[in-house]
Amino acid sequence: MFELDVQSRKPIYEQLMDKIKELMISEVLQEHNQLPSVRILAQKLTINPNTIQKAYKQLELDGYIYTLPGKGNFVAPPKTLKNSLKEEKIKSELAKVLAEALYIGIDKNEIYKLVKEISALAKGGES
Prior knowledge:
With 127 residues, the chain is mainly alpha-helical. It has 2 domains: 12-80, Winged helix-like DNA-binding domain superfamily/Winged helix DNA-binding domain (Arc Repressor Mutant, subunit A); 83-121. The chain is 54% helix and 6% strand. The chain has 5 helices and 2 strands, in the order αααββαα. The protein has helices at 12-25, 38-45, 49-61, 84-103, 108-121, and strands at 65-68, 72-75. A two-stranded antiparallel ribbon has the order 1-2. Strand 1 and strand 2 (72-75) form a beta hairpin. Helix 1 packs across helix 3 and helix 2 (38-45) packs across helix 3 (49-61). The radius of gyration is 17 Å and the shape is globular.
């Protein structure tokens, strides 16, 4: 379920966060599903539990998961992710990437096609 690249320059906790987000977007992890406990995931991935705790904490701060004391960590409903600051950050990053893509010569029709493909994969995506 979780594969991490220990040779990557990207920190392990960020890789874990990205993987969890990817699983949420592809609906492998659905809202209110319980995530593996820190201890179990640490044993499975053979990494320090503090690394997993850091990833979970950041995901919670970003609104992707929520914690129930004594119960564990769960996938948050998508509505709770609707945060105007987060939305503006994503739009800004997307604008930079699109500007760079156009600058290096990627055709805008190819970009539209990619957006449509991604929209079709994401639940509730608009074509």
